[in-house]
């Protein structure tokens, strides 16, 4: 059961995390040293269509949600918010953030972008309002095909990067750094932002410690 205070914190984490995710992706764009896999595709499509990256991200997210239907995936508040908020936050940040001049500044933007992206991922996933359209696509394919999440994610993201690069998206050291760092960073920040379970009051007074405790010190 969620208390009003707990629900408020979850909503803050969701929308704060999604906004930070879009902003951190903009930092990677401005670094010019390589983007995360899906944004390589978004940038390539933006270059070919003349649309902004944020608009492309939003439109592609909506298309991916349609693919959830045959996969029998159910979107949550976090899923729909993911589609709407990240693209807007990315475009808003790109509109005020100038390009970096000099290698040191570009590396600083890259590292900051990757770390903030990990924090953003931990924030919105810990809010537990449902996966984003891209993650939901992968889990849906996993359920329908029986293949491992690792195999499906690898195949999807390699395809996405290759297609985005062919369309003009930026692939570089930042893409590799993101791929190596985002897992550990997301896991760390998930622990930082995890919500503690709501204690359930009990009318039973235990006379002794259970023999099989779930958590052992």
TrEMBL record:
The keyword Lyase does not apply. The keyword DNA damage does not apply. Signal peptide: none annotated. The chain crosses the membrane at residues 12-33, 45-69, 76-97, 103-127. Pfam families: DUF6198 (PF19700). InterPro entries: YczE/YyaS-like (IPR038750). Keywords: Membrane, Transmembrane, Transmembrane helix. This is YitT family protein. It comes from Streptomyces griseoluteus.
């Amino acid at each position: 059961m969620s208390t009003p205070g707990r629900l408020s914190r979850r909503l803050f984490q969701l929308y704060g995390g999604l906004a930070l995710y879009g902003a951190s992706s903009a930092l990677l764009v401005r670094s010019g040293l390589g983007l995360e896999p899906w944004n390589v595709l978004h940038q390539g499509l933006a270059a070919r269509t003349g649309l902004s990256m944020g608009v492309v991200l939003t439109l592609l997210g909506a298309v991916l949600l349609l693919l959830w239907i045959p996969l029998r995936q159910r979107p949550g508040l976090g899923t729909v918010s993911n589609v709407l908020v990240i693209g807007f936050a990315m475009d808003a940040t790109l509109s005020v953030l100038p390009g970096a001049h000099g290698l040191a500044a570009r590396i600083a933007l890259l590292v900051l972008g990757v770390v903030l992206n990990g924090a953003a991922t931990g924030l919105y996933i810990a809010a537990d309002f449902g996966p984003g359209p891209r993650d939901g696509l992968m889990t849906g394919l996993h359920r329908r095909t029986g293949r491992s999440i690792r195999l499906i994610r690898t195949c999807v993201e390699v395809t996405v990067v290759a297609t985005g690069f062919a369309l003009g998206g930026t692939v570089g050291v930042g893409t590799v750094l993101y791929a190596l760092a985002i897992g550990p960073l997301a896991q760390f920040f998930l622990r930082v932002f995890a919500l503690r379970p709501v204690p359930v009051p009990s009318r039973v007074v235990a006379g002794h410690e259970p023999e099989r405790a779930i958590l052992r010190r």
